[in-house]
Design brief:
Number of strands: 5
Order of helices and strands: HHHHHHHHHHEHEEHEEH
Strand order of the largest sheet: 1-2-3-5-4
Number of helices: 13
Helix content: 55-70%
Shape: elongated
Distance between the termini: 48 Å
Length: 392
């Protein structure tokens, strides 16, 4: 079964019934604390009429609580409705606690959790203590045992403030997801604009020249065919050069870059549940071909970590070094997985070795923990002369 079909990300609304059931189950687990009111109803301490009204009140309370938390934790669509629902839950908790006894004080815990889960911190930070104070006030009146009241006061207070943190985390995650989508859209728009500008610069002059020479050749063709043939030859030369320029531009857009692969590695490892330590910056002055080879190498290494290593942690470093053969830039990808002892290099490493050879680079592999043979470390080294001083 696909993980995406069964899990709901933090701050993500459920997309189908399976995810809706999963979210409802996660929220419903906390209803286990309702066992005290349920037991009180089943013990038969109350009259049939009080038991029936208590059962109805409990069902209404639970239903209102589930709807409120389920719909408004990630995004409060209607603040007035949310506050009215919390006021209703608080009133119902007061009535049931005063009429049916101590076991019903637990309802205030759910009122406090609802406040923390649905209201802004500026309101929740004073309303949660108010709900807890009402719980204590009712618990200390009448025949309610003080031990139970004290025991419920802490979950009400701590549970409410804990839910404010969870709610803030959900809201932050939603904002980050929206910001990431916006950045991706802006980046795509910028790429389209850049491609349009480059193609205009590459083809505008060439196509204009081809059009002009075509018209000139057409006028020369009846009387001076030899000059028309020369114009046609020029048209062929210009069109060939334009084709070369377009291919170079498109190849540049398709070429992987090291900053892009570092960002992709960070996303891929996080999605696979691997704790990643990845640099944010790339040294300036890295030759284009060497950067492309390192980008392919990083992609291959991260793919192996995600698919085959079973690692829990992966570290990526970019280190300029001085060697006897000159200055080099080393890309190291190390994980703590099962290692590669007894395995033979696959097509990916073979192809990567060939790419490195084209830029006079090298590839070395070893166990991250030599004594135990655990983990796998891949080191790619490419010549790096320009820009190294600033990187150090």
């Amino acid at each position: 079964m696909n993980e995406d079909e069964t899990s709901v990300g933090i701050g993500s609304p459920p997309e189908h019934r399976r995810q809706m059931r999963l979210k409802a189950l996660w929220i419903g687990i906390w209803l286990a604390f309702m066992s005290a009111p349920v037991k009180d109803l089943l013990d038969g301490h109350h009259t049939p009429w009080a038991t029936a009204l208590g059962t109805f009140g409990l069902l209404v309370f639970v239903g209102s609580y589930l709807i409120l938390v389920y719909r408004h934790t990630s995004k409060a669509l209607d603040p007035v409705r949310v506050r009215s629902a919390i006021a209703f839950l608080g009133t119902l908790a007061v009535v049931l606690s005063l009429t049916l006894g101590t076991p019903w004080l637990v309802l205030f815990v759910y009122v406090s959790v609802s406040v923390g889960a649905t209201l802004p911190l500026s309101i929740a930070r004073w309303l949660i203590p108010v709900v807890t104070a009402v719980l204590i006030a009712i618990g200390l009146t009448g025949e309610h045992p003080r031990e139970i009241t004290t025991a419920l006061a802490f979950p009400a207070l701590l549970g409410g403030f804990a839910m404010t943190g969870i709610r803030q985390m959900i809201r932050t995650t939603i904002q980050l997801r929206e910001a990431r989508a916006t950045v991706a859209q802006l980046a795509a728009n910028e790429e389209r604009l850049r491609l349009a500008r480059d193609l205009h610069d590459l083809l505008g002059h060439s196509l204009s020249l081809i059009t002009l020479k075509s018209e000139l050749a057409g006028r020369m063709l009846p009387d001076r065919p030899e000059l028309a043939a020369a114009q046609v030859a020029d048209i062929e030369q210009v069109s060939r050069q334009a084709l070369v320029d377009v291919r170079s531009a498109v190849t540049g857009y398709r070429r992987p870059t090291l900053p892009g692969e570092l960002a992709g590695a960070r996303t891929a490892l996080a999605a696979a549940g691997v704790d990643a330590d990845i640099p944010a910056d790339v040294p300036d002055g890295l030759p284009e071909k060497a950067e492309e080879v390192l980008a392919w190498g990083l992609r291959e290494a991260v793919t192996n970590v995600v698919r085959h290593s079973g690692a829990r942690r992966c570290t990526v470093t970019l280190t300029p070094r001085q060697t006897l053969d000159g200055r080099v830039l080393e890309l190291t990808v190390a994980d703590d997985g099962r290692g590669a002892a007894g395995t033979t290099p696959g097509n990916g490493l073979t192809g990567l070795t060939e790419r490195l050879a084209s830029v006079d680079g090298t590839l070395t592999t070893r166990a991250t923990q030599p004594r135990s043979g655990k983990g796998f470390t891949m080191v790619l080294s490419v010549p790096f002369e320009s820009g190294l001083g600033s990187a150090e």
